[in-house]
Write a structure and sequence with these properties.
This protein has 326 residues and is mainly α. The protein folds into 2 domains: 2-29, no CATH class; 40-319, MetI-like fold (Orthogonal Bundle), CATH 1.10.3720. Helix content is 67%, strand content 0%. Helix 3 crosses helix 13. The two termini are 32 Å apart.
């Protein structure tokens, strides 16, 4: 009996401030709850700061390279090579060393961030747009429309992305390319290939969410008020999928960064002399035993970027989870 009384006093005191007055209870909006949970994850916050800095470095690549006093990413400087004409390692003039043509690796790593982030963000945006539209339509209308779109997603998922990219690069690398020069090895081909291979993943997630949402009471209420199917999908269903869309977008971004690096490594992506992390790693494979810095620094940039995006994605997933106890 005494234990119950002490517990009761503790519960009553929990609602009082230091002066003994009742503590004011304030309601929090969903955005406030999200930010409260997210900022409690220090690893995700540090990763987010890293991503913001990386984006600023990519956007301001030219002034940053000029401020550092290093040569441009495509500027060849044979005097920077050693006495035997081999790449020289990190020094005061070239903090990350130079490659076999005397080009500054620090400048190429900075400019390579532009390529990786541009391809990743654009391809992810296109994939999310296609996936949300197709998944919403399939889940809302069901029937033969759902069957047709679901099988289309299965077909795309079954197609190997690397073989598709290599085939396009091989077929369109000669002459004016394919479709009158529309498809040639480069950023556009990278974006198209990555987007077309990524949208079914988010399309499946959205379709599963819509199948559940379309049976909710607020959807029935919207139908009873005479709302059209397009209005219901646009005003009722899609806004209720923002949380999973944000989470999955943050998780698919690092995957697409790796896709860009892998395709550039295979020679399908950005063509020389434009700097790209995957292309730099590919060029360093032949001289890695004598010029370790040529592979190390773009490899570190790639690993840290992918890790940061994954950690932010995990943090967003925890913060947007309504079952989180924080």
């Amino acid at each position: 009996m005494s234990i119950g009384a002490s517990e009761l006093v503790f519960e009553d005191a929990a609602g009082l401030d230091a002066s003994g007055e009742p503590r004011e209870v304030t309601a929090r909006s969903p955005s406030q709850l999200f930010w409260r949970r997210f900022r409690a994850d220090r690893v995700a916050i540090v990763s987010l700061v890293f991503i913001v800095v990386l984006i600023l470095v990519a956007v301001l690549a030219h002034p940053i390279v000029s401020l550092l006093g290093v040569s441009g990413p495509d500027q060849q400087n044979l005097s920077a090579l050693d006495a035997f004409g081999q790449p020289s390692g990190p020094s005061g003039a070239h903090p990350f060393g130079v490659d076999e043509l005397g080009r500054d690796i620090l400048a190429r790593v900075i400019y390579g961030a532009q390529v990786s982030l541009e391809v990743a963000f654009i391809s992810t945006g296109v994939a999310v747009l296609i996936g949300v539209i197709v998944g919403t339509v399939a889940g809302y209308f069901r029937g033969w429309i759902d069957s047709l779109l679901a099988r289309a997603m299965d077909v795309v998922l079954a197609f190997p992305i690397l073989l598709l990219a290599i085939g396009l690069a091989s077929a369109c690398s000669l002459g004016r390319g394919c479709l009158g020069g529309l498809i040639t090895p480069g950023r556009v081909t990278l974006i198209v290939v990555i987007a077309l291979s990524s949208w079914p993943y988010i399309g499946r997630i959205v379709r599963g969410q819509v199948l559940s949402l379309r049976e909710k009471e607020f959807i029935e209420a919207a139908r009873s008020l005479g709302a059209s199917d397009l209005r219901i999908m646009r005003r009722e269903i899609v806004p209720n999928q923002v949380a999973p869309i944000i989470v999955y977008t943050s998780l698919i971004l690092p995957t697409n960064i790796l896709y860009e690096a892998a395709l550039s490594f295979l020679g399908v992506g950005v063509q020389p002399p434009t700097a790209s992390w995957g292309q730099m790693i590919a060029s360093a494979t032949g001289i890695f035993d004598t010029a370790w810095w040529y592979m190390l620094f773009p490899g570190l940039a790639l690993v840290l970027t992918v890790l940061a995006f994954n950690l932010v994605g995990d943090g967003l997933q925890d913060a947007l989870n309504p079952r989180t106890g924080r």
